[in-house]
Amino acid sequence: MIGTVTEFNDDSMGGSLTEVNRLRVTVVAAPTTAPVPVTGQGAATLLQATNAAAYESVLVTLNDVKLTAIGNADNGFVATAVQGTTTFGTDILRLAAGNLGCYSSITGFWTNLEAGASAARTKPNAHSFIPLTLGTGVTCPAP
Q1: Rg of the Cα trace of the chain?
Q2: Whole-angstrom distance, CA of residue 111 vs CA of residue 114
Q3: Which is it for the CA torsion 85, 13, 108, 61, positive or negative?
Q4: CA–CA dist 114, 124 (Å, integer)
Q5: Distances (CA, A) of 40 to 60, 88, 105
Q6: Which of 32, 44, 46, 114 has its CA 20 to 30 A from that of 131?
Q7: Distance of CA 120 to the CA centre of its chain
Q8: Which of 109, 110, 65 is nearest to 84 (CA)?
């Protein structure tokens, strides 16, 4: 894909979302191997303003994550997760109350979650995580 990169933000409550205005798209054969997620990065590093945009839409594996709360209308349907001492948002569409707990790893896409204005009482706009797979459930460490 060839295009120009722009930063989009329709409110003043958070960061911008990196978008590509396409000039040309060339369709090629699908890759023969699955994409490999980035490892070795933590939520604290990914949330830093100097790093967050560089990882937007990148497949990432985070280790030792606790899913602590499912989203609702009060928080823009963004669920909450914790890695170490870092709290971050995660997409409610992939999670249910039965998913709350600790996981050896979660793999998904780092992105800028923006809750739909019509469905949310608040409109969070922050770099967060969209989980695709949950690793093995593990015992949560003591607080």
Answers
A1: 16
A2: 9
A3: negative
A4: 6
A5: 9, 17, 11
A6: 32
A7: 18
A8: 65
Structure tokens at 133: 């797979």
Q: What is the pTM of this model?
A: 0.71
Query: The tokens of 48 are what?
Result: 């830093």
| Tens of each residue's pLDDT in the chain, 143 residues | 577 777 776 666 656 667 777 677 777 888 888 889 999 999 999 888 788 878 888 899 999 999 888 877 676 677 888 998 998 888 766 677 788 899 999 998 888 765 554 555 554 556 788 888 888 888 877 66
Query: Token pair for residue 112?
Result: 């800028």
Quick one: which of 16, 21, 24 has its CA closest to 4? 21
Amino acid (one-letter) located at 33: T
